[in-house]
Amino acid sequence: MINTIQAHVVGASRYKMDGGIQGAKITIMQPSSADNENQLGNQVSVMTAPYDIFDQLHAIAPHMPCALELDIELRTSPASAGGKTTLHVIAARKPNATGSQHAPSANSDKK
Questions:
Q1: Nearest to 41 by CA among 26, 31, 27, 51
Q2: Measured between alpha carbons, how far is 56 from 60 in angstroms, rounded to an integer?
Q3: Are the beta carbons of 16 and 22 closer than 8 angstroms?
Q4: Which of 1, 38, 50, 74 has its CA 20 to 30 A from that of 85?
Q5: Nearest to residue 26, comparing CAs of 42, 62, 50?
Q6: Residue 49 and residue 52: Cα distance in Å, rounded?
Q7: Which residue ranges have biased composition labelled Polar residues (predicted)?
């Protein structure tokens, strides 16, 4: 399932390794939950992304940090690889002026 979030993106990086392995990472910052007495300030999260999203981010947001809309999906690695769940960014764009979300894309299963 694809979800759209409003995020304060603080940075992005990409990597390319031998064997054709490549990807990107997007770092976001969000305020700590007011309901959690064990957190103060802001929390930082790192999300995975396709390699080419870095060029897209460079075009739409060359000066970070900035607010962006991110289409994300949860991905879980196989149990043999640890079964880790990660947030994976599949699209990024500037938020529109009204702050409302864009219509879901054709490949989205949001209703």
A1: 31
A2: 6
A3: yes
A4: 38
A5: 50
A6: 8
A7: 97-111
CA–CA dist 92, 110 (Å, integer): 17
103 assigned to some structural domain: no
Q: Which domain holds residue 75?
A: 2-32+41-93
| pLDDT tens per residue, range 24-42 | 999 999 998 889 899 999 9
- Closest by Cα among 92, 16, 103 to 47: 92
Q: DSSP 3-state assignment of 21?
A: coil
Q: Where are the beta strands (DSSP E) in the chain?
A: 2-16, 22-31, 42-49, 66-76, 85-93
What pTM did the predictor assign?
0.77
Strand partners, 110: none
H/E stretch holding 58 reads helix 53-60
Question: Can you give the CATH number for the domain in which 66 is found?
Answer: 2.40.50.140
What is the token pair recorded at 72?
């994300």
